[in-house]
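Working notes for the structural subgroup meeting. M.R. asked for a predicted model of this chain before we commit to crystallization trials. I am recording the input and output together here so anyone reviewing the notebook later can reproduce the run.

Input as submitted:
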Amino acid sequence: MAVDGDRSARVSQSRGLMLACLLAGLAGMVDGIGFLRLGHLFVSYMSGNSTQFAVALGRGRVTEAGSVLWLIALFVAGAAGGQMIARFSGRWHLTCVLAMVGLLLAAAAVFGTAPEPMVLAMGALNASMHRAGNVAVSLTFVTGTLVKFGQGLGDFLTGRRAGWAWVEQALPWVGLIVGAITAGAGYVRIGAAVIWIPVAGACLLTLWSIVIPEPE
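Returned structure, recorded in token form:
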């Protein structure tokens, strides 16, 4: 029975990591499109936006700083909305949050790659999942993921950790990078219409969440 339980836990964690990788890929696509659309601002990477806000404010560019602060405020609002939906929807929180993300991205596409719905969507996406089994996952930012990966590598090299489980920490980063590459390549070929790719991705992930048990 213990063996069956361990196997089930591994399968659940593998599914969760695959889903986290796909969600991070979605975030990477949207952030890449937003980066190109907004002229080097971000729709999900608020650490970068916070630095740009502070630099603009320090240089006396109040209007520019205000524009960046608006994006940060929208992201926080999206995160709050996503968290409330997740709390109220219980075991269906993944499906409901992803449906919200899909609707917001569709609104962005309809209104000519409007950045506001994209930022709200990326804030909300963070409420979709937090862990894949024993692995904590980050979807719209990867600094913490890379730190954990580096720490796991350090422990492995010093003999404090055996096996390769620590490599799993890098999967969301890989997903985000692939998503951003897809966005950049698509933007070159079809321009702003590339936003429909993450819209389709969000819809497919919503269907995934309905037919496959949630990893948490």
